[in-house]
Amino acid sequence: MYFFLAIIFGIIPAFIARSKGRSFFAWYVYGVYLWLIAVIHSIVIKPYEEYLVASGKETKCPYCAEYVKFEAKLCKNCRKELPKLSRKQYEEQKALAAKVLKQKNEKANIIAFICLVVPIAIILISMMVMMLVARA
Questions:
Q1: How far apart are CA 54 and CA 128, in angstroms?
Q2: I need a labelling partner for 38 at 20 to 30 A (CA). Which of 25, 66, 89, 90 fits?
Q3: Is pTM, for the whole model, over 0.90?
């Protein structure tokens, strides 16, 4: 019964985390295994900076390389005036951020897949061993 509820409830932290630029699959697996912790974690985590750049909410300061709001005139970290980005520079920055975000999520998906497959494999192998022992 818990397993079926976990499969359904795992969607909740996955949707919350996806809205912050995180991998849906990785957070779904996390939510299935540790639902309550995953929900709290997905609520308190900050969005990936790359996600905010790719969505046009932030940009990177060319002087200190810190992220600042797209509408900012001065960098909040180094206090230098931010140059106005051309449309081409803006699109390049968004594309690069999207690429970095995709790489991060691909790594998270691989880890989540391993975390999903290994316990299932252990359960299946132990069941097969128990069946072989019971026959002997």
A1: 48
A2: 66
A3: no
